[in-house]
Amino acid sequence: MTKTIFFSVGEPSGDQHAARLIRQLANPGGLAMRNDERIVCRGFGGPSMLAAGCRVDLDLTRHAVVGIVEVLPKIREFFRFADQAEDIFRSGSVDSVVLVDFPGFNWHIAKRAKKYGIPVHYYCPPQLWAWGAWRARKMKRSVDHVIAVLPVEKTFFNQHQIPVSLVGHPFFDAVAEQQLDTAVMRRFHSQQSTGERIVAVLPGSRDHEVRSNFPIQLETIRRLHRELGESGDNVRFAVAAYRDKQCLWCREQLSEQDKSLPIDFYVDCTSEIIEAAHSAMMVSGSVSLELLARGTPAAVIYRVGRVLHAVGKRVLKIDSVTLPNLMAGRKLFPEFISVGDPAPAVDFLTETMRAMLQDSFYYAKIRRDLQKLRDEHASPGASQRAAELLRSRLFGVDETLSEKNSLRMQTEMREAA
Fold first, then answer.
1. What are phi and psi of 189, to 5 degrees?
2. Which CATH number fits domain 2-168+381-416: 1.10.10.10, 3.30.750.24, 3.40.50.20, 3.40.50.2000?
3. pTM summary value
4. What is the pLDDT of residues 391-412, one digit of tens each?
5. From the UniProt record, which GO molecular function terms apply (predicted)?
């Protein structure tokens, strides 16, 4: 018996999450299933899904947009893509639809799928709990089952009586699978053997984030170097750039007086830096999940304009911008939103990083709290659990079989922790 799942994925990160799920659907490993069950995957996605064996009808990741300014010129194009998906649904060849984030477009895919009676699942759903509670009604109309990746999502959708299952975040699968660069790790170990402590500097992955936040981080490095140098602390700062041009821009911000700073610049070595780091100063983003997975304490900043900050205060229904803090229900990672004058953000980062580097009791407490949260919510296996759920719903696996798989995977999560 063969079933076809249509994926709709518009972001590069979603492409990677979907690819892991597709591999688990094709190679279910220890999942109990019948020999004649087979799943074929097709749809809109990107190169990672293609490499995982999915038939990609459209590379939607090439059309990823952020904000209304980028969306408006492409509205016609996106409606054409949605019509293309509807043609596929009309053919009767699709048994289930899986949406991954990208809500502006995926609402249209869900609506068209429901038109033909195709079950719709939302994996890595949009963060309605943070900014869009008013859209819960649309989710309830358009989606049959939400596959949540964060505890706060499960709570939110339960409150709105939307069917939901929590599988964990696939980001932790990525961390568990990743092979760190041995040459880079040897360099860090060599530095540590001389007593140096490495502080990761994570300025963000988008150009505007780097340009807004790295100057604050750099000024913090200057102040810490002056203060810690006087007390004899041996600290080296490792800047993790996402792209070559971002790395070059960060280097160019150093003045002649900065030549003595103990600072190194890296491209595409973020995981290695986080693994080796004593602590980190970071810009709010999904990298916070990797810091959690690797147990690295961090201080978080995010710089926003006055207008966006004013709008955010009205729209956002959360008291933190950092995912591990939301998972914990408290601020394990100290954070600061910078608006206007950057000086308060520099003060915050300097004071917080100084405490992490010099107060061993404070640092140890953060490490213990991170370990506890990691044991509870950061175990790998999310992709496998999501695949098991989809198989159960596609092939009508009986409750006894589903419960058996669920208990087995819960045991594996505890052992992994």
1. -65, -35
2. 3.40.50.2000
3. 0.79
4. 999 988 644 334 444 444 445 4
5. lipid-A-disaccharide synthase activity; phospholipid binding
